[in-house]
Amino acid sequence: MDCDKCGREAVMHAAYSGLHLCEDHFVASVDKRVRRRIREDDLVPSDATPENPQTWVVGLSGGKDSIVLTDILHRTFEKDPRIELVALTIHEGIEGYRDESVEACVELTDELDIRHELVTYEEEFDVRMDDVVEKDPEGMAACAYCGVFRRDLLSKYAEKYDADKLLTGHNLDDEAETALMNFLEGDVAQIAKHFDASLGSFEERESPGDSDASGGPRARGEQDDFVPRAKPLRDVPEKEVALYAHLEDLPAHITECPHASEAYRGEIQELLHGLEENHPGTRHSIMAGYEELAALAAEEFGAREEGDTDLGECDRCGASTTRNICRKCSLLDSIHAV
Ligand code: SF4
Ligand SMILES: [Zn+2]
Ligand SMILES: [Zn+2]
Question: Cα of 324 to ligand 3 centre, how many Å?
C-alpha cells in the first residue's frame, strides 16, 4: 500500500481513520497529535516566561510509552526557554526487569541531555517489590502495593523539584481501559477524580462562536494539595506508540513486569481489542464521550466535596491524607512487621 499523503511505501494503516502513512508522515502525525493535545489541554500557561519557566516532571519508566513521550517533549520544547524537563525514574526493586529499563532511561536522557533523577523503593522505604510479593502481609496483588508506593514517590519528588506539572506516558488504550473499568465498576466518584487528575483543559475557554464563557469546555478542578498531572500521549493508540519507538530507534525496554497482576484490566483489554477490530474508532469514541461525562461528574462531585475533604498530613511522613497515618505508611508497617 502507498502513503495517502505522498505515495511512498506505507508503514502503517489506521483502520479508525482509513489512512495509510509512510514512515515520515506517520512520525509527523504522532508528533502533531501530541502537540495538539498539549495545546488543547493548555499545558503551557499564559504566564510562563523565560524568566519564570515551568518545570515539568516526566515519569520515565523506560517502557515505550514514557520513552516516546520524553523524546517528543524534548524535541517540542528544546528551544523553548519557558519549559524545563526533569525525567524521574522509580526503581521498584524487581529482579531481571527494572535494571534493564533504567539503562534505557539513562541512555535516552544522556543522549537528549535531560536532567534525570532516579529514586528507589529500597532507599526510600527500605523494601524491594520482590520482597513485598514474597511477604504479602495484606493478601493483595503486587500492583496494589506498588501503585501506592509509586504514587507516593511521584508526588513527593514532583513537589521536591518544584514541578508545575507531572506528565505520564498513558496512551489511548490505557485511558480507554480505565474509562471502561470505571463505568463497569459503576464508580462515578472515581470518574470525577479521573477528570480532575488528568483529563480536560487547565484553562477555561469559550467555545467557538459562543460569547458565554461558561458554555466552553469545563476546566480542571483546583488541586491545591497535588501537583497536577497530564497525559499528552492519550490520543495515540498503543500500537502506534510502539511503532514510533521502533521507527525512531528509541531505546525502549519491552519486557513485562513479572509481577503484573491486574487481571481485570487484562479482560477489559481483550474486550477492547475485539471491539476495535470489529468497530474501528471505538477507543476514540469511548474517550470523547467519557471526557464529557467525566467533566459533568467532576462538576457535581467537586462541588459536593468542596470544604469537606478533611485533607491533613500523615503523622509519620507528612504526605497529604484523610487519615492520621497515610496508606503507604500503614502498608510499610505491615510489610516490615513480617
Ligand atoms: S506491573 Fe505492578 S508490580 Fe510491576 S511495576 Fe507495575 S505496578 Fe509494580
Ligand atoms: Zn508519506
Ligand atoms: Zn505517611
Answer: 8
